[in-house]
Amino acid sequence: MTSISLMTSRFSGRINARHSLSLIGARLIALSAPYAHAQQATALPDMDVGSDALPPAVPPTDATITRDTLKQAASRSSDTADILTRLPGVSAFGAGGFSSLPVIRGLDNGRVGILVDGVKIDDACPNNMNPPLSYADPQTIEAITVITGVSPVSMGGDTIGGAILIDTGDPRFAKQDETILTGSLSGFYRSNGDGFGGAAQVTAANDKFNLTYAGSYTQSDNYDGGGKDGVVRSTEYAKTDHSLALAAQTGIGLFQVKGGTQRSPYEGFPNQRMDMTDNKSWFLNGRWQNWFAWGDVDLRVHYRDTDHRMNFLADKGGTEDGGMPMNTEVHSAGYTLKVSLPVSQRDTVRFGSELHHEWLNDYWPPVAGSMMMGPNEFVNVNAAHRDRLGTYAEWEANWTGDLTTTLGIRNDQVWMNTGDVQPYGNSMMQMADIQAAAAFNAADHSAHDSNWSGSALIHYQAAKGIALDLGYAHKVRSPNIYERYTWGRGAMASTMIGWFGDGNGYVGNLNLKPERADTVSGAVTFSGAGDTPWTLRIAPYLTHVADYIDVVKLGDLTDMMGMPNGFVQLQFANREARFYGVDVSGDATLWTDADGGSARIGLTASWLHGQNLTDDDPLYHQMPFNAGLHFDYTAPRWDAHAELHAVTDKDRVDPTRNEPRTNAYALVNLGAGYTLKGVRLGVDISNLFDTAYAPLLGGQSLGDFVATGVLRPVPGRGRSFNLSLGTKF
């Protein structure tokens, strides 16, 4: 990978009367990755606009993956969440080929704050097949910032974990009386799965207006597992993304409008009973920024419409014509307003407000001739809404050149409600769902949560080459629509719910309380300069979650003969949980050549312990100890890299969900690239030794189970020869 940098950063925004925004402070340390290309701010006439994904106060652990790295990583994976797993403390629930669910320090996708260009994207599927990162193609992302430690309240509410911030790039303008036409083209091919794709980005601009198009396409057949694992069914996919953005510099600020579409005609899910047979989504976002003598203002408005379809692809025995159609419609809209006031040379105060509206309808059309799935439409979620109004205040103080503090408080009001539901019919075979629907419809569906959060961050440069960071946060997350409002008690209905990839059935709970998490995280960073600069960071953390939304067992699922089939039915329930661990990362320059070439080595390691304190059992899908070693060499025309990733046995598993144990493994990846006249050709080999392994959070291989009757963890991808070609103009 060309540039993954872990940084401790201090940004302090200051505004002057000539409407220029300067980012004061420096990125102090680059850790963890073999390369360290610092991301530069986008230059505009009369102003310097940096990536807005980062607030001025940056918490202790901050990782930035740059565009060059993402371009090269796209030759190996179209899954943005999978690319992030190279960072310490970050893992991913296995899912479809571009839809894995990120996990930060044991807290999964729904608990992590994920923003794409500052906007939250809602899940629109009972199996979470279209999570936020599935709308962010690594081929067209400018940068990704990952915060694994405590994040400030200004970064968003309704989350209790870390944060992932996707930045697709700020507009660039030409100098006065000039025009520019710039862009990039790229493509890739992967031998394993016969995957291929490409991307294009084109910008036309003068000193006042910017018009930018970005588009990408990717597809793959089923991949082969390592060694003798053979084909892994339900791993095919295809996806197309397009966006068009217009920006204008005016006397009253910078205006931006961006719209786009995504279409995925199919995506297999090896660890789900269903597949995605269509996903159509379009969005329209607007933004206004202005810089005044008294402060700066940033206002966004956003809308997204998603139409999602599930059924069985061929590997699971069907197509959308028949099978078991399941449809979901989601509309999201809202705004975010941020105001920053530099009240003194030392102090900056920030205020913010945001509104997020989510409307969701989930219904399953009847199947002609089926006694189980008819004669009526199954109403899983009836026009549910989840509305959140958040406000916050934050104070940053730069006490000395070596000590900075950031304190914030936040409130999020969450209102939820939904309509009545109905089962497929009224036959004796549907009695469990008939009774459950009657009980659900008789209950009060409305819920209102008033959630208070707070954060405190300290950064201290203790001495030359030693930096200390400490953060504390109390944060609250309300249940999502599926956790609260799914109601089916029949075996078939409940197994259609769940994003965990375990084959079990899940039932919602109207009585769920919000999760309340208290987190303490810190980091000590050592660094050295000279001809061979180096860094080392040690970052421990502890999180306690009251009313953690886990599960309780309702009973065993059975087959048509009434015999247990190895899966269980579970209901979401509030428990108590604790997470603690440590992330270690280091980076060193080995040598520098006279012609500008340099060699670097990087190390990452993570250890995590997650415990259900109510049941005194391990929590589900927690990563054991894992480590990575990276070496790479860069020269003016060519580059090369080698990677080793290793994990230990996963023997701490959740007995309630029948989580399987998996074995330790180590993977080796090699790659090289050559650049001539602005065109780069890359060649790399993933899983060099074709190692057979099961990703530890990959779930059960249900696609294979349907075809063979043998249940096994999802096998990892075997050896693949990958080619990439890219240029800029």
From TrEMBL:
Cite the InterPro entries for this sequence.
Beta-barrel_TonB, Beta-barrel_TonB_sf, Plug_dom, Plug_dom_sf, TonB-dep_rcpt-like
Q: Which UniProt keywords apply?
A: Cell outer membrane, Membrane, Receptor, Signal, TonB box, Transmembrane, Transmembrane beta strand, Transport
Question: TonB-dependent receptor-like beta-barrel domain: which residues?
Answer: 236-688
Instruction: Tell me the ranges covered by the TonB-dependent receptor plug domain, including all copies.
Output: 63-163
- Membrane association type: Multi-pass membrane protein
Localization recorded for this chain is: Cell outer membrane
| Segments traversing the membrane | none
A GO molecular-function term, please?
A: siderophore uptake transmembrane transporter activity
A single GO BP annotation from the record?
A: siderophore transmembrane transport
| PROSITE patterns xrefs | TONB_DEPENDENT_REC_3 (PS52016)
Span of the secretion signal? 1-38
Question: What Gene Ontology cellular component terms go with this record?
Answer: cell outer membrane
Q: What family is reported?
A: Belongs to the TonB-dependent receptor family.
Name of the protein in its database record: Iron complex outermembrane receptor protein
